Amino acid sequence: MSQIIPLISSGIAGPLGVLHLPRLWQKVSLETVGKLHPDYPGIGAGYDQMVLDGLGIDKDAFVEFMKSKPSYVQLEAWILEQKGGTLDQNAVDELNSAIAGYIHADDTRKEILEAAGREDDGTIKDAVNLNNLDDWASFHKAEIAG
Length: 146
What we know:
Oligomer: single chain
Number of strands: 0
Structural class: mainly alpha
Order of helices and strands: HHHHHHH
Radius of gyration: 16 Å
Helix content: 55-70%
Strand content: under 5%
């Protein structure tokens, strides 16, 4: 069975405007059917939990809903249903700022850039872009370069 490395960036938002939510949906969808690459958690302690907490969504309820294998649009509709039809825009803005502004520790940055084959020239510090590079390098190693 194929094990898939998720390639949707944490910097992507769907129609609700929540960064990382499309990636969280993809990871948990893959995990639900046993296709998520083992190096990736379905719901990790970082951005994944930040999104659930920021939206006020219970992790267990989220996991249970995801077992129904919803499309992304169905997930957003379910979230709106859980929140009484609307999201708190201030909470979404705060969450998005936290995601976009997160900076990895220096050792994590160096490790990611080294694995990606990129010099650490100090120009990439944010976790979203570093995580993208990490995903792309992992994908290339696992699927292309062998």
